[in-house]
């Protein structure tokens, strides 16, 4: 029977959900997705600029294109809601991503022969990359939400995203070692091999998971939800839900602030602190170490204190955003104190607060996914995923545009960076304000649901 069908209470399974091994298996699928994506957004980006001598705007627009295509995430989420298998969409999207990633690498040969042929092929490849990420990633998060018990949602989010970051790090190290001496043919072969390994990991990760019982987590779901209906009705169900709308706004604002600072931190360190490319790369590693710490704190807190102190984890999103705003405000002040400012510590704290709010948001997303009038986990994940993708695409562009505009208006690097960091801090403060409203509604709901506290960071 389809997973969204109504199940009589007398026949429902205990709400034990997936075990930790099964959660790790699904996390490895997310790691496989990240392993392929990093090659197209990082390695291929460098090859186009350095080895092919293309203008930096070209790979920048291609990466932006793959984010823009992910506005289709609600469509793929709805198809996984109404189809017979989410596993099919996870593996199908992963396969498409692997093939499209290899195709993107193959465009390096086309660019050598004809710029027009290369750019047309690259546009097609990045469109397919966006579709593959949307179809696979949306369905994967929906499956995790359906099959994981409420008290494990926070730790599950932490495990999933930590494995994704680990997959990116491992892929970068292994691929970096295999690409020397560089050639376009070697890049294509390495990308194809990475895609094949990732697909095998995906098969092993999802095998048998969907056949396990779905966990009920809310009052309306405990009585059984009707199957998701048409795309329009399912989308209206999300848009008419005030809490879902608030969460969509929060995702957009917080991820816009997050993405806007992503592309300017290393240039900032180079221009005002005189750091070399190697030193700014190490600074990026410092930030990711902070991200991992923030994620671990949220995950461990949810696992230990989740049931006894539901009000405590619910504040992780709010305080994570507020802390990110403070860290960015401090960076704004550092423009007047460079190069004596403790930049590494500041960046580490920014990473830790970013990691805390991000993984708490994913945990909240998994909880809110099952609160629809119909069983439309995929649609809800798709709407929030689309908001995140749009924010990432806009953030990367707006951050660099705002910086260039500030440098032109003020003729001062310090003032330009300070202005951008201040704007980002303001966005995080607004996101924190929105998050407090989401948290209060979640706690009010939890008081009506015995033994199933609704916690945004859990």
Overview of this structure, please?
- By secondary structure, this protein is mainly α.
- The protein folds into two domains: 17-214, Growth Hormone, Chain: A, CATH 1.20.1250.20; 231-458, Growth Hormone, Chain: A (Up-down Bundle).
- The chain has helices at 20-49, 57-69, 73-82, 86-113, 115-147, 153-178, 184-206, 219-222, 231-239, 242-262, 265-273, 277-305, 316-334, 343-368, 377-410, 413-446.
- Helix 1 (20-49) packs parallel to helix 4 and helix 6 packs antiparallel against helix 12 (277-305).
How would you sum up this structure in a few lines?
76% of the residues lie in helices and 0% in strands.
- What is the first-to-last residue Cα distance? 30 Å
Look up the CATH topology of the largest domain.
Answer: Growth Hormone, Chain: A
- What is the succession of H and E elements? HHHHHHHHHHHHHHHH
Number of helices: 16
Shape: globular
The CATH architecture designation of the largest domain is Up-down Bundle
State the domain count.
2
Instruction: Just give the CATH class of the largest domain.
Output: Mainly Alpha
